Amino acid sequence: MSVTTAFTANEGRTYSSAPAPGFRLGSSGLVALSWLVPVLLLITWEVLARYGWIEPHLLPAPSKVALTAYKLTVSGTLLHDLAVSLLRAAIGFAIGGGIGFALGTLVGFSRIAEAVIDRSVQMVRAIPFLAVLPLVIVWLGVGEGQKIFLVALGVAFPIYVNTTLGIRQVDPKLIELGRVQGLSTWELITRIILPGALPSILTGVRFSLATAWLALVVAETIGAQAGLGFLALDAREFLRTDVIVLTVIIYALIGVVADSLARLLERRLLQWHPNYGAVR
Amino acid sequence: MTVQPRASAFQNNAVVVSHLRRAYGTRTVIDHLNLVIGQGEFVVLLGESGCGKTTLLRALAGLDPVQGGTIEVPGRPAVVFQEHRLLPWETLWRNVTLGLHVPDARARAADALGEVGLGDRLDDWPRNLSGGQAQRVALARALVQAPKLLLLDEPFAALDALTRLRMHGLVKDLVARHQPGVLLVTHDVDEALRLGNRILVMRHGVIAAEHRLRPDHDSAGVRAELLRELGVTSSH
Fold first, then answer.
1. Which of A19, A146, A254, A258 is paired with B131 by a 20 to 30 Å CA distance?
2. Which residue of A3, A13, A178 is in closest CB contact with B174?
3. What is the predicted pLDDT for the residue at B214?
4. Which residue ranges make up each domain of chain B?
5. Lowest-confidence segment of A4-18, A20-34, A154-168, A195-209 by average pLDDT
6. What is the predicted pLDDT for the residue at B66?
């Protein structure tokens, strides 16, 4: 049996988006327009390089760079170096992210942990992490350890700060509700506190992806035997500006891909959030 | 303080409060308060802001420590707050079954949401709800626990007038069916008259007046009396 109520299904609100003022351009039109300037720049660059207005040894034509990309891909060098770099980034990210998240959670939950840990972490955080590079080289040499350490160092802090912040910002009224509903401490953490902290934690992940990449670029320019940085260094020895430009472009592309992955993760995990998910 | 889940001592009582004392530092907010709410009884607690009525409700919910006396509640009381307090990251049925450890949780959530007229919204998100709908889900979340004592802390205060009237009807129906003892804290005298079997007026931490309402009670008369007890001088 069911209680008869006077509520109707139409009680929920619906929103309609008002058209923007001014003359209208469809969203696909706007996307096309946004690509206009980059494409024009590329064409100008190509033309200038082709007709000798730019010295090819300083800046080769985009078509030359594309051809180099193709050759290096076919020979396997590029993919190998790319894989080595990505692996370094992934390992460093896992280690640094894990440590940052663990410490952040600890400090977020416990005032005692905060008193013990936070000041030291904040002091170390004040150091631009690239400034310790010479020290890291003395400690760990110029092998894999140095590169992974530097990435981990860069990643740990954004994740630490945002995890702590996220946990502290969870609405105390929801925690109180959890107590009223009789949740265990474990349920309180997994169903209320961590989901509540997740938007902030994911912001930390996005920041740290950018830092990880920066750390890798710097670390790889010192004593690498493989990797994108090595590819660029090696090319410099032979004045192969086409290869150098190629590595720069690949660094940029990977940055863009990493950022889109982080956004995708946000949309997936935060589909409940008014600022992320699609409405209905 | 003791909150004892002793069902045997009760038979028909949803809560027995004896000599309850609650103080913030030296300021006593609740002073040797006694209260018994029977199973299926709808008790409304009226009073000015700061008279201790929300403090009493929070003590009964086990949210705040008390400094003296006993509260005996069979099982865990359910609470509906002024804000819906739905977890925005959980779907409606997961919200309703928060803290409910049974194998057929989803089916129970479906029943409870059906009872509040949202049976087709199990997998929807809280952000897609209006204020009234969200408060109905909060009500479903409280009732799915099958509480012996239901505590309502001004749950209609943030709703618009029409939605509030509809909510009154819904709550009355649901309480009649599930028969929990209810303590409703409110500022609204007319709400008290519509919903309560018994109306208590609280002042300075004690229950200053009590009205038992029979079905044939003189609404206007009780209303005038309540307003006088609340310190509002009625013009008619």
1. A19
2. A3
3. 82
4. 1-77+148-155+182-236
5. A4-18
6. 85
What are the tens digits of pLDDT across the range A186-239?
Answer: 999 999 999 999 999 999 999 999 888 888 888 888 877 888 888 888 888 888
Q: Are residues B61 and A180, on separate chains, in Cβ contact within 8 Å?
A: yes
Closest Cα in chain A to B172: A3
Whole-complex ipTM: 0.87
pLDDT of A14 reads 46
Q: What is the CATH number of domain B1-77+148-155+182-236?
A: 3.40.50.300
Comparing CA positions, the residue from B170, B204, B168, B173 lying closest to residue B186 is: B168
pLDDT in tens, A92-136: 999 999 999 999 999 998 899 999 999 999 998 898 888 888 888
- Taking a contact as any Cβ pair under 8 Å apart, which residues of chain B between 74 and 103 contact chain A? 76, 78-79, 81, 83, 85, 87-90, 98-100
Question: In chain B, at which residue ranges do the beta strands (DSSP E only) sit?
Answer: 2-4, 13-24, 27-38, 42-46, 68-72, 78-80, 149-153, 181-186, 198-203, 206-212
Round to whole Å and give the CA distance between A162 and A246.
34
- Write down the pLDDT at residue A5: 41
Q: Which amino acid is at A227?
A: G
Torsion on CA atoms B218, B224, B225, B227, rounded to nearest 10: 140
Q: Select A59-269's CATH number: 1.10.10.10, 1.10.3720.10, 2.60.40.10, 2.60.120.10.
A: 1.10.3720.10
Q: From the list B63, B129, B169, which residue is nearest A6 (CB)?
A: B169
How many other CB atoms are there within 10 angstroms of residue B2's CB atom?
9
Does any CB of chain A come closer than 8 Å to the CB of residue B225?
no
Q: What residue of A is the nearest CA neighbor of B120?
A: A9
Per DSSP, the three-state class of B155 is: coil
